[in-house]
Specification:
Blueprint (H helix, E strand, L loop, with lengths): L1 H46 L1 H7 L2 H22 L2 H11 L3 H27 L2 H9 L6 H25 L3 H25 L4 H27 L5 H11 L2 H22 L2 H37 L4 H25 L1 H8 L11 H17 L1 H5 L3 H26 L1 H26 L6 H20 L5 H21 L5 H22 L3 H6 L1
Helix pairs in contact: 1-8, 1-12, 1-13, 1-21, 3-7, 3-11, 4-5, 4-7, 4-10, 4-12, 5-7, 5-9, 5-10, 7-9, 8-9, 11-12, 11-17, 11-18, 12-13, 12-15, 13-15, 13-19, 13-20, 15-18, 17-18, 19-20
Length: 519
């Protein structure tokens, strides 16, 4: 018996690192797929920018911006956190049949609420349009935009089902294809048919309409039609508090523009917006792909016996990735703005490091909510986010009045920092985990020191400045390595992730992976 127990412990000791490596490799693989898809989708939109600015006027852009903001805000209420709720309940379902019933219940709920909402809104489209856009703007614009929104709301459920099943490639291909079709239609409607803003709205309506039709048929064929009131109640209870979290993020992302406009000027809003866009790159290149992957991956990892070790490794590696990329963007922000923006926007580089740091903490804060998601304590997430949003409004009022756009940037950072701290505190209360926060804090402190060092030497030569900053950035990982920020198992995972990334890149480029890794 003693020999059997010894053999069992040896097998567990051997299998444990394999399980950890496998789970983290899955996270890296899915995260890279979502990240590549996100970047390609954004790149498509960026390449279309000259086309839009040629055929559309500033008034058209203003109408689109207002429509987008209002519908995004309304969508936060209608969605009721159903995306996160479906992923959570799907993961907790014990059988295949139960998982299908969860997906079918969620789809029927979303489709029904979508149709009811659309029918109810038809009677108020005209007065709402006059209120938002004025009497001179046709109410058809709002009708087309709202119709696209309802279709996207319904299509979001099958897309979430793909997330729950961790079908990252299918999810990315569908999103990219939809955007590509929409942009092709934009060219036809705007450049060929000359219908301007209506063409953009029709393109979105058609592309999303095709998506919702195909995905809905596919989903119902796969899961059938079934309904479970207890499961629906569970999903609504889980997702509803997340509405407050989404509203808080909306406040954090957009309220500073309104304060800047009223306290300073539209010119300063424009300069700030340019710098903010560069800092926001941290969100759509790193944070959002991780968020998409992690909201489904965290639950299978939790089911593993060594989930604590896996969660720690993922947190440390994810945090160091955010810190390194944030340091690079902050260091080179003056050169980036000088190359990519007109001279009148050059001063925007001042806010980029602060906004970048804010989104580093936004990414850390999302991960810190782990314990609250795993224990379904989403009310705590809503409370933390709501407090941070109120804090942000106060900070915007005080700091923007005194410091303008720099005050807006610092208000954003302090608010995201508060969310990160509050989320960590809330999760530790309900699900204590050792995540290696002290080591991440050391890396953050070193990154700040490296950034300040990069700013202390400002040569007149652009090439010399780039060389100096490039050398500093190259030294940073070596310093992290020498001060042992990474544990031995995390070092092994870094090397493994590097090899996986190279192998994936080689498959995409059609190169032999062995050569790439060997190189």
């Amino acid at each position: 018996m003693a020999i059997d127990r010894l053999e069992g412990s040896v097998v567990e000791a051997v299998e444990e690192p394999r399980v950890v490596n496998l789970e983290i490799r899955k996270a890296v693989r899915h995260g890279m797929v979502y990240g590549i898809g996100n970047v390609l989708t954004k790149a498509l939109g960026f390449l279309m920018l000259p086309f839009y600015t040629h055929y559309l006027n500033p008034t058209d852009y203003g109408i689109l911006e207002i429509l987008d903001l209002v519908i995004s805000l309304f969508g936060m209420f209608l969605n009721m956190g159903m995306t996160a709720a479906l992923v959570r309940c799907y993961a907790s379902a014990q059988s295949t049949e139960e998982k299908r019933k969860v997906a079918s219940t969620a789809f029927l709920f979303v489709a029904t609420t979508g149709v009811i909402t659309f029918c109810g809104a038809l009677g108020v489209i005209k007065p709402v349009s006059r209120l938002l856009l004025g009497p001179k703007v046709p109410s058809m614009y709002l009708l087309l935009a709202f119709s696209s929104f309802i279709l996207a709301y319904i299509a979001g459920l099958p897309r979430t089902y793909l997330l729950a099943r961790e079908a990252s490639t299918a999810f990315t291909v569908i999103d990219f294809s939809t955007v590509f079709v929409q942009l092709v239609l934009n060219v036809i409607f705007i450049a060929v048919m000359k219908i301007g803003l209506v063409g953009i709205l029709l393109s979105s309506l058609f592309a999303v309409g095709v998506q919702v039709l195909l995905l809905s048929v596919w989903l119902l064929r796969r899961v059938g039609i079934g309904f479970s009131y207890p499961r629906l109640k569970e999903m609504v209870r889980f997702g509803l508090p997340l509405v407050f979290s989404n509203l808080a993020l909306f406040t954090l992302n957009f309220s500073d523009r309104f304060f800047l406009q009223h306290v300073r000027s539209l010119e300063e809003v424009g300069i700030y917006a340019v710098g903010y866009k560069f800092g926001f790159m941290m969100n759509f290149v790193l944070v959002q792909p991780f968020y998409i992957m992690w909201q489904s991956r965290m639950y299978p990892i939790h089911a593993q016996p060594d989930h604590g070790n896996i969660f720690r490794q993922v947190f440390v590696l994810y945090s160091l990735t955010l810190i390194f990329c944030g340091l690079a963007l902050s260091m080179f922000s003056p050169e980036i703005v000088t190359i990519m923006a007109d001279r009148k926007f050059w001063s925007s580089h001042q806010v980029i490091p602060i906004v970048t740091l804010a989104y580093v903490f936004y990414g850390l804060g999302y991960y810190a909510q782990l314990g609250m998601f795993l224990t379904s304590k989403t009310k705590l997430i809503g409370v933390v986010s709501s407090v941070a949003a109120l804090m942000n409004l106060g900070l915007n009022y005080v700091l923007i009045s005194r410091f303008g756009m720099m005050g807006a940037a610092w208000a954003t950072f302090l608010s995201f920092f508060a969310i990160a701290v509050g989320s960590y505190w809330g999760s530790q209360r309900v699900f204590p985990l050792s995540l290696g926060v002290k080591r991440v804090a050391i890396a953050m402190g070193l990154a700040v020191g490296f950034y300040l060092t990069s700013q202390s030497f400002q040569p007149r030569s652009l090439g010399l400045g780039l060389l100096f900053k490039g050398l500093l950035l190259g030294v940073f990982p070596l310093v992290l390595w020498n001060v042992k920020v990474l544990a031995p198992d995390e070092v092994e995972m870094v090397l493994s992730a590097r090899n996986n990334a190279l192998a994936l890149a080689c498959r995409v480029l059609g190169m032999p992976s062995s050569k790439a890794v060997g190189a």
